[in-house]
Fold:
Amino acid sequence: MLLTKNFDIQEFVPMSLYKLYGDSCIRFIDNRIPLLAQAYKDILTELYKEEVLVTINNKYKGGQFNERGFREFDTTTGALYSDHKYGRAFDSSFSLRDGRVLPIKEVYQKLLLRLPQLQLIGLTTFEDLEFSKTWLHSSVRYTNTNKITIVKP
Structure:
């Protein structure tokens, strides 16, 4: 089930969960998460002047990622009370159609140019790039501040 122009529900939940619940897995993720992923794609495509691919979960298409969106509580991936387990976070990587991988620090800097737009959607938190060198961790958790929170695992 498409949640936005470019993102399917399967990109936000593990394959095992999708096999059990199908499209009703939508209940496990915050509705702002796919909107934020779509905004990343749209903003970066505009700024790079060519299509940017945003990779979240891709195992259902034969890729390697399966727990970059919602994570079940019994997973050994990530922190015990990670925002992933509440459907409020996702990890993403970025590339161009020709396969070139975009450096996370560069992507981060470009997204900061549109920070007010992303905050209107609900972005509140990034993971410190010293810990997430090959992916961007984004969260819509409640922070009680209008500044972006930077978390360290």
Observations:
- The two ends are 32 Å apart (CA to CA).
- The helical segments are 15-21, 32-48, 104-112, 115-121.
- Strands lie at 52-55, 89-96, 125-127, 136-139, 149-151.
